[in-house]
Design brief:
Layout: H1 8-30, H2 35-75, H3 91-150, H4 159-190, E1 198-200, H5 202-212, H6 214-219, E2 223-228, E3 234-236, H7 238-254, E4 261-269, E5 272-279, H8 300-305, H9 313-323, E6 327-331, H10 335-339, E7 357-364
Parallel strand pairs: 2-4
Antiparallel strand pairs: 1-3, 4-5, 5-7, 6-7
The structure holds adenosine-5'-diphosphate.
Adenosine-5'-diphosphate (ADP) is lined by residues 247, 251-252, 255, 279, 281-284, 292, 297-299, 302, 309-314, 357.
Length: 381
């Protein structure tokens, strides 16, 4: 059975009604008077009682409604404002004072928590910056000595020794890549990296980035489709442009299986340069897509295909593009290449083909935004 809640204002009205009726009956008994006089008295008493009751109950109701809203806000984690109630000397006033006291305490607690969290995250970023900076020199020394040994400068080495040294060299390269990426992430998080745009031939930068992956494209028999529109020199930071192109092309080649297609398009659209890099690779699982641009993200499906990877590349790329005034997004499956009839596996039903991924990004035609900073990004050097 439901119990109907009676509003406080209704209760006050009812009390005033009963009280007025009793008053009129007593007047009839003790003072007397004609029926007409009693009716006139009734009218006056009821009207007066209702006005008083209405004013008192409205004040109570308004204060209580304010209080309940505030408690709901607090439950949702908002402790920013205190409650203000006029002439609050009654019980409701006491409740409001107690609640305001609680809000003050919570405000101080939350402020302490936020500053503690900021301090911790700053200390973490500082540590990563320092550790990765310190690690760079010994790793470069290891690289240099392996080159020295493999080149036979310290005496002849046999085939087996050369094979082992190659493995040491590759592992050292992976470590250098990770340390550089960590250093870049800390420079992004600390806001110390600079953007120094200068007139640059974007198409030449795209071609140079592709050259770096020529051997893997050939080894995996990937079909490369290029559609580059002629562009005037654009104000770009050449180093950052290289980092962005190489990261996205590197992913496309890494995560596309043998015989796949990579399409690279650059064109002008209104006030932007629009860049699109599509592949017919393994795609990104839908449920993991919201995490693509977060630090250390590697989707489950790629871990099976390619063990190497830091999960930091796209975080760096997104920061660079957005700080330069551009935008970046992606689509997976890659609709254009999936529907392309010229594709080698066009006879395979769409849901059975590789899913593919397309990364899109824009850079303003007027160039990247200048950003003052004490450090340059280092990735893929
Ligand atoms: P990683 O070093 O692992 O490549 P990135 O930050 O460059 O790190 O990419 C993050 C993750 O996003 C990858 O591990 C992969 O799961 C997914 N990803 C990025 N590009 C592609 C792509 N072209 N095809 C499929 N998955 C991709």
């Amino acid at each position: 059975m439901f119990k109907t809640a009676i509003k406080l204002s209704d209760k006050i009205l009812l009390i005033f009604f009963i009280f007025s009726s009793v008053l009129i009956l007593m007047a009839r008994f003790f003072i007397g008077g004609s029926l007409q006089q009693i009716l006139i008295l009734c009218n006056f008493v009821y009207i007066f009682a209702f006005i008083i009751a209405y004013i008192i109950s409205k004040k109570f109701s308004d204060d209580l409604v304010k209080l309940s809203f505030k408690v709901e806000e607090m439950a949702a984690g908002n402790f920013s404002k205190k409650i203000v109630i006029k002439n609050s000397r009654d019980e409701i006033g006491q409740l409001v004072n107690a609640l305001n006291e609680l809000i003050s305490r919570l405000q101080t607690g939350v402020a302490l928590d936020v500053s503690k969290h900021k301090e911790l995250s700053q200390a973490k970023t500082d540590f990563v910056a320092l550790a990765s900076h310190q690690l760079r020199t010994p790793l470069s020394v290891i690289k240099w000595y392996i080159d020295f040994l493999v080149g036979g400068d310290a005496g002849p080495i046999n085939k087996e020794q050369s094979k082992y040294l190659k493995q040491v060299y590759d592992s050292n390269e992976t470590l250098i890549e990770l340390v550089n990426a960590l250093l870049d992430v800390s420079r992004i998080d600390l806001g110390t990296f600079s953007i120094e745009p200068e007139p640059t031939d974007m198409i030449a930068k795209a071609e140079a980035a592709l050259t770096k992956f020529e051997s893997v494209i050939k080894a995996k028999k990937l079909t490369l489709i290029k559609q580059f529109e002629k562009l005037p020199p654009i104000n770009l930071d050449p180093r950052l442009t290289k980092i962005v192109f190489e990261n996205i092309i590197s992913n496309a080649t890494k995560y596309t299986l043998e015989g796949g297609v990579i399409k690279f398009e650059i064109k002008k659209i209104e006030n932007d340069v629009f860049i699109k890099i599509s592949d017919t690779g393994c795609g990104i699982p839908r449920e993991q897509q919201p995490r693509v641009f977060t630090k250390m993200f590697r989707a489950d499906n790629v871990k099976r295909i390619e063990a190497g990877g830091t999960g930091l590349g796209l975080y760096i790329v997104k920061a660079v593009i957005e700080k330069s005034g551009g935008k970046i997004w992606f689509e997976s499956p890659s609709l254009e290449l999936l529907l392309d009839k010229g594709q080698k596996n066009a006879d395979v039903p769409i849901d059975k083909r590789n899913r593919g991924t397309t990364f899109f990004f824009t850079i303003p035609l007027k160039g990247m935004k200048f950003k003052l900073g004490t450090k340059k990004l280092t990735s893929l050097d």
